[in-house]
Design goal:
Layout lengths: L1 H12 L7 H5 L3 H6 L4 H4 L9 H15 L9 H32 L3 H13 L13 H9 L7 H9 L2 H6 L11 H6 L6 H10 L9 H11 L2 E3 L2 H9 L15 E3 L9 E3 L2 E3 L3 H13 L2 H15 L6 H13 L4 H9 L15 H12 L1 H5 L3 H7 L17 H4 L2 H18 L5 H9 L5 H8 L4 H10 L1 H4 L2
Antiparallel strand pairs: 1-2, 3-4
């Protein structure tokens, strides 16, 4: 039983087993997972990667050359060349982010911590949906999510929401109090996107009693929170009758600009939040972070991720109790997930997303075998490129989203390509032992063992139900 439990620990709770990892976990599979509940296990070195401030500093440095042409500035052809260079650099930055993230997930000895971090990154999704976001998605995950996934939910929520990446992704950085002077002068005003998604996706969940009035009031409380830079400074100065405001010494930071904030007390979910404008949003976020509906919403998503697409109410209730009794302590919640008996059943109930499939192959056989020459192209071919979730709801986490006929065809094409690379190394049966251990069933072992070639054997192993599921 311990060998099977060790395989479950590495493949269902972790990102997939590396060679020898199932044996490492066999003595105490749950203890092996609990040992990974450490902040340092969820982060990775950012060597060669840009911070959010680096991204903004580079943009501002290029702005005079790439922006509208003025006297003595470059001609149109030069400006277009600069714009193309900026776009190339942004794409290159995203490529480096994806490779660093993949490298860490493929090699880390703490793959439960990695799965945990990716769950929260998807919960608080931002996506590279346009040129403005493409350079921010990687820094956002590294700065706002990973360092906080074993802290308190309120801390993670605040860091995620008030990071430049989220403020820009959901248009809150451009949201201005309707009655403020800058709004009247610029024909600008309130944007409700961030407030709505916080209530619907990040905290309470759909159908939990909040109203459109709550959304509007919350959006007003969020006004003033924006991203530092020359444009923000000019806008804030306009709100003070043209007087300059020392609003940022460094571009690319989340700041509170009082002239852009809608004054007055805000009432959300029947509770009034007054006082200093800068503290209103934080007060509401703190209220939402400990709300019973938030506990239920988070517990349901975690049970769906670690147990099944339709998790039993018993699993949800245990996680909900942990969330509430610990005041949103995510380390305690992670331990509660590990100790869910419902998550340790023999049957594999979760169909791997493309990213999960790729990472489990990379951990078992190496990133070169799993991806060949181009990581982003392989991710894209399976319809799950990192940092490209289709909506603020993040990537779907159910079999229906990933098991269509065309998706399975793409997986088979990928498996064939991987098998050609793997056939130069270990045998297919050795791969099954390392990747799945006791989870590989007799029929799969028989089919792989009778394969006409090593290449065919690896394809059968990669496409086996036990490897496609976790």
């Amino acid at each position: 039983m311990s060998r099977l439990s060790a395989a479950i620990a590495a493949t269902r709770f972790g990102m997939g087993a590396r060679p020898g990892e199932i044996a490492d976990a066999a003595d105490d599979p749950r203890g092996w997972l609990e040992a990974q509940i450490r902040t340092d296990a969820a982060v990775f070195p950012a060597d060669g990667l840009q911070s959010t401030q680096d991204v903004f500093a580079a943009r501002i440095a290029d702005a005079p050359m790439a922006g509208p042409r003025g006297a003595g500035e470059p001609d149109e052809e030069t400006r277009q060349a600069i714009q193309q260079r900026i776009q190339r650099e942004a794409r290159e930055g995203l490529r480096l982010e994806i490779e660093a993230r993949t490298r860490h997930a493929a090699s880390t000895g703490s793959s439960f911590a990695e799965r945990w971090a990716r769950f929260w990154s998807n919960h608080f999704t931002v996506a590279a949906r346009n040129a403005q976001m493409i350079g921010l998605v990687g820094p956002y995950e590294r700065e706002a999510i990973r360092p906080h996934v074993f802290g308190r939910f309120s801390q993670l929520l605040g860091n995620a929401i008030l990071h430049p990446g989220m403020l820009i992704y959901l248009d809150a950085a451009r949201s201005i109090g309707p009655s403020t002077l800058p709004a009247q002068r610029r024909d600008a005003g309130l944007n409700e996107n961030l407030a709505r998604e916080i209530l619907e996706l990040h905290t309470l969940g759909v159908g939990t009693g909040y109203t459109q009035v709550d959304i509007v009031e919350f959006a007003k409380a969020l006004t003033g929170w924006t991203v530092s830079g020359p444009q923000t400074a000019r806008l804030a100065a306009a709100g003070r009758g043209g007087r300059a405001q020392d609003i940022a010494t460094e571009p690319g930071r989340a700041i509170f600009a009082e002239p852009l904030h809608e004054p007055g007390t805000r009432t959300v979910l029947g509770k009034a939040h007054g006082g200093e404008g800068k503290l209103q949003a934080a007060s509401i976020l703190d209220m939402l972070a400990t709300h019973p509906a938030t506990a239920r919403h988070v517990a349901t998503k975690l049970a769906r991720h670690f147990v099944s697409d339709t998790p039993p109410q018993s699993a949800i209730a245990k996680l909900e109790t942990s969330f509430l009794s610990s005041n949103g302590d995510l380390a305690a919640l992670a331990r509660a997930v590990i100790h869910l008996d419902e998550a340790w059943v023999d049957e594999q109930q979760k169909f791997k997303t493309p990213e999960e499939l790729l990472m489990s192959a990379a951990r078992a056989a190496g990133a070169q075998a799993a991806f060949g020459g181009g990581q982003r192209q392989v991710y894209t071919s399976l319809a799950q490129a990192p940092f490209s979730a289709p909506s603020p709801a993040g990537w779907p986490d159910d079999v229906a989203a990933w098991s269509g006929a065309d998706a399975i065809k793409k997986r088979l094409e990928w498996a064939n390509a991987v098998s050609r690379r793997m056939a130069r190394g270990s045998s297919p049966t050795d791969f099954l032992d390392a990747a799945l251990g006791e989870m590989a069933g007799g029929r799969t072992r028989q089919a792989v063992g009778r394969a006409e070639s090593a290449e065919q054997g690896f394809t059968l192993a990669l496409m086996a139900p036990e490897f496609q599921r976790r």
